[in-house]
Amino acid sequence: MPRSSKRPDIETVYHPGAEFSLFLPERLPDTPVQHIAPPGATPRWPKLHLDPALKKQLHKKPLDACYERDITYRTHLVATSIKLEEGLSTGFREEQAAQVWRVSLSNSSEPLVARLYDPLYYDDLATDRFASIERSVAIHCEAYKHLQSLVGSHVPALRGIFVVEITHVDFRKPRYIYCVLSDYVPGTDMRRLINEYDRDGEKTCDAHRAALLDCAARLLYDFFPLTIYPHDMFPRNLVMDIPDTPSLENFCDVESCPWRNKIHIDLEFSRSQPEHRYAPKAKMIDLELLRFMEPRAYMHDISYCRRWLVRLWNEAWISTGCRDILGTRRWQPELTDERSNDW
Which domain of life is it from (predicted)? Predict the structure, then answer.
């Protein structure tokens, strides 16, 4: 969407220190509806084509278009307010996803994550941004109905769905948008853990790459029975908290590996209890692209989950040596994942 005097620069609206009031929504979005998948295929979300009249209005008067579609809220129930502290939106889906910030509440210093779904700064001109936002919020609502047993261990806790009041000197009146508030997950995303290099030339070894993929596969193994199909389970969406204090034990034989004494390696699926102190544990932090499907029989297999991730991550994250360790070099997927640009 072209720059317009009616749309302030995003940095002047969302910036560290900005404070916004949260209200309870009048209603939550309707349950999202997927395309019915044919046998052997995964479910997909329908494309949300942009109506030509709406496209024209967004081009000429974007602010008016957003005002007309403000989210309704309960005026007499102010929930709380949030203060933006650090922007977390660094992914390639920013033009279609929310503004993601680490925030604090007005009555607490505990860090949380706010996903602010502002249609004014949604720059995909081919998609109905208002319908897309409704669906994104609805997916979060539906996902947590399925994931209750895994909250805290596999995904961050949901603190609530709110309506945020957005004010700015260039807005003639406040605007109201959706906000999904969840726990903040400290740690490092798997992009860095898998492809870590430091100034001394340290590089993540194949055995630790295999251990990290296996950690993600265990999450997947637990997602499938809950009818969760995590279409966006890439390394950037998985966060792991690495112990600050190294272990006295070495977990691989590569001296230059940065995780040699920080991430335990155990590829046996039935781990002994109690779990090793340095065993890798990760959480998936973004649920926006989840799909829902009943698991097939072969999905109740950790080997399948490993192969599924190998295919998804591909050569960018998985080395040949890692594939050899996991035994996943030769594999034809049983499930067709149609990679259409639905979003």
Answer: Eukaryota
* Residue-level pLDDT at 272: 54
Instruction: Give the residue from 175, 173, 181, 134 showing the smallest Cα distance to 156.
Output: 181
Residue 330's DSSP bridge partners are: none
> Which run of H or E residues covers position 99?
strand 99-105
HSE, side-chain direction, 13 A CA sphere, residue 62: 19
Could you give the CA distance from residue 162 to residue 311 in angstroms, rounded to a whole number? Answer: 37
- For residue 210, which of 195, 197, 188, 194 has the smallest C-alpha distance? 194
φ and ψ of 156, to 5 deg: -70, 155
User: How far, in Å, are 90, 125, 231, 276 from residue 220 at the CA level?
Assistant: 24, 33, 11, 20
Residue 247 · residue 278 · CB < 8 Å: yes
Residues 6+ apart with CB under 8 A from 317: 190, 191, 194, 195, 209, 213, 235
Distance between CA atoms of residues 178 and 79, nearest Å: 13
Helix (H) or strand (E) run with residue 69 in it: none
| Contact between residue 84 and residue 116 where contact means Cβ atoms under 8 Å apart | no
Tell how far CA 142 is from the center of its chain: 15
Residue 198 has pLDDT above 70, yes or no: no
Rounded Cα gap, residues 222 and 192, in angstroms: 24
- Chain segment 143-196, per-residue pLDDT in tens: 999 999 999 999 999 999 999 999 998 898 999 999 999 999 999 989 888 886
* pLDDT band for position 77 (cuts 50, 70, 90): low
The burial of 129, by beta-carbon neighbours within 10 Å (0-12 exposed, 13-18 middle, 19 or more buried), is given as buried
Give the whole-angstrom CA distance, residue 51 versus residue 145.
32
The 8-class DSSP code of residue 219 comes to: H
- pTM for this structure? 0.87
Q: pLDDT at residue 73 above 60?
A: yes
Half-sphere exposure of 103 (CA within 13 A, CB side): 29
